[in-house]
Amino acid sequence: MLDHVLPLISSPWIFALVAATVAVDGVVPVLPAETLVIALGALAAHGRPAVAALIAAAAVGSFAGDQLAYRLGLRATSVVAKRGGRLYAAVSALRRYGDVAVVLGRFLPGGRTATALAAGSAGFSRRRFAIGSAVGSVGWAFYIVGLGYLGGTAFHDRPLLAMLPGVLAGLTIAATTRILVRRGAGREPSAARESSAVGELSAVGR
Q1: Rounded to whole angstroms, how far apart are CA atoms 96 and 200?
Q2: Rounded to the nearest 5 degrees, what angle is found at the Cα of 172, between the Cα atoms of 150 and 179?
């Protein structure tokens, strides 16, 4: 089976596919972008695709998707005020932690899209968002490719099985982080402070 896969992953078009998938996943998080990158990272431990190029493609796609989601948020300036849940949690994180929230948001399930949309909708500084997105994209690319690469190294003789540890580790870390974030968000007052949070972010985020 691997003999049929190798010609595909050896093509330079695989990096364009990775960048496009990761970018679209930042706006419509339905594509298995993380799974794809982890799987390719596991195969990279066997020589192909090139690790450096894979990391670069993932980082570029992540940054591009962030900017698109931010621009969509700019066109929907009332969306945070009208909706609670994940978007309001993202606004609260931006208000509390600023650039750090932009960097770390992408490591949470759905956090990347929510943070970018909330930042644009609430008027968070475009320059600060772009810098945080660039730093976070590079860090995320190293992290997600590294998960796959470690699995590929551990199961060097079984490259297809090597994809599983990275995928499982990524899901476990993401789920654990999400639970911790939800517990913290549960202490946050709900509707009474939503509009003030957006207002404060718009004032200090520029």
Answers
A1: 10
A2: 145
Spatial CB neighbours of 105, under 8 Å, sequence gap ≥ 6: 90, 93, 111, 112, 114, 115, 116, 136
**12 cis-preceded (ω within 30 degrees of 0):** no
Residue type, 132: G
- Give 132's contacts (C-beta < 8 A, 6+ positions apart): 99, 100, 101, 102, 103
The total domain count for the chain is 1
What is this structure's pTM? 0.77
At 106-162, the pLDDT tens digits run 887 777 888 888 888 878 889 999 999 999 999 999 999 998 888 778 766 665 666
The domain in which residue 130 lies consists of: 2-204
